[in-house]
Amino acid sequence: MAEGDVLLSKDPESAETWTAEDPTVQDLEQLLSTGPYSCNRTDEVWPNLFLGDLVTAHNRFGLWKMGITHVLNAAHGTMFCQGGQDFYGTTIDYYGVPAYDLPDFDISQYFFSAAEFINKALNTPGAKILVHCAVGISRSASLVLAYLMIKHHFPLVKAIKAVKEHRWISPNRGFLKQLQNLDIQLRQTREC
Q: Out of 39, 81, 133, 192, which one is annotated catalytic?
């Protein structure tokens, strides 16, 4: 196995590999399917960056206890995620992304603005951010992956592995394709 390759199996004798630069959607889905399938309502997946669900997001007292100062809602305006700046008041900075968890929804249009919001929050002394959607595994996870790719220059596979160390995630197939395109775009930009 070459440096930069990723194992798709725990058994090195039978493991398939692919280079970190060219995984297929099926490869990514296989990587995502490894490890435990459970997660908490909210998990810290990067220092001071929490990935969670709408139950956590709708509990203002719980957010206060966690020290959350910023909320990125990846399901803004959908039936179950009605949060907004009015809901949180002046104690929490809010950013809403009106994404639907559908493979044909273009979540990529929010990759850079969401990454900028997360980055600004994490560069604020003492700040903590919750990124959430309904369940905290697809829309919000896709935006966290994009953040790691854009602001920390992680290839997509490395970003997935970093988040999966702390939380089970499962971006839908369409979002994975959009993250693949982002990966290619960022790689080409860095090579110039």
A: 133
